[in-house]
Write a structure and sequence with these properties.
Radius of gyration: 17 Å
Number of domains: 2
Number of helices: 11
Order of helices and strands: HHHHHHHHHHH
Distance between the termini: 43 Å
Shape: globular
Largest sheet: none
CATH architecture of the largest domain: Orthogonal Bundle
Number of strands: 0
Strand content: under 5%
CATH superfamily of the largest domain: DNA Cyclobutane Dipyrimidine Photolyase, subunit A, domain 3
Structural class: mainly alpha
CATH class of the largest domain: Mainly Alpha
């Protein structure tokens, strides 16, 4: 089966197979039990309300699946920010990103040649599948904004262009969160975290703690 089947019946089957407890325990790992439903949600094939209703109908109580509900809520929250702020989400929302030395995207990221094995493999797969694990999206954004010091907007456009689940509210506001333009502090990825969640054992990369 392809990663993202186009048959509506197959989408509904995937909806019925969600395991919110396994999701909570493993979602941060690159091979974790994520739902792979994001393209269908972003394109309106199914809704976050429908996803939640399906899980609750199978007997899971809200207090047992809090993390799963939170992630659905984040998606809706970003949409509400977009509705409220409009085109303001195309600009640094809370404060200016700092420091910024360029408005481009490193060719090392574009070509999957960062030297960070997990990220380079994920970028190669990204061009083929149109999908990036959420943690890898954060790693790439941190690499682009907080190490290469690129302003978040052009790199966010690059990712948005290639994502099958492209959602400008989630994408733009998440990039701003990483870059510190939509949060009180930046998200700084490190190699230890990449190794843990991507099952690698690498040292001496651009993300290695000093």
């Amino acid at each position: 089966m392809p990663l993202f089947p186009t048959s509506y019946n197959e989408v509904l089957q995937r909806l019925q197979k969600i395991d919110p407890l396994a999701y909570r325990a493993t979602r941060n790992f690159i091979d974790g039990k994520v739902t792979y439903l994001s393209p269908y949600i972003s394109r309106g094939v199914i809704s976050t309300k429908q996803v939640l209703a399906s899980v609750l109908k199978r007997g899971y109580t809200p207090e047992k699946i809090e993390k799963f509900i939170q992630e659905l809520a984040w998606r809706d929250y970003w949409q509400q920010i977009w509705i409220a702020k409009g085109n303001a989400i195309d600009l640094d929302l809370k404060q200016a990103q700092h420091p910024v030395t360029n408005t481009d995207l490193s060719s090392a990221i574009i070509n999957g040649k960062t030297g960070i094995e997990a990220i380079d493999t994920a970028i190669t797969d990204f061009y083929r599948t149109g999908y990036l694990h959420n943690h890898v999206r954060m790693y790439v954004a941190s690499l682009a904004c907080n190490i290469a010091k690129s302003h978040w907007k052009f790199p966010a456009h690059w990712m948005y262009y290639h994502l099958l689940d492209a959602d400008w509210a989630s994408n733009a506001l998440s990039w701003q969160w990483v870059a510190g333009a939509n949060s009180n502090k930046k998200y700084v990825a490190n190699q230890e975290n990449v190794n843990k969640y991507c099952h690698t054992d690498q040292r001496g990369t651009a993300l290695t703690n000093k």
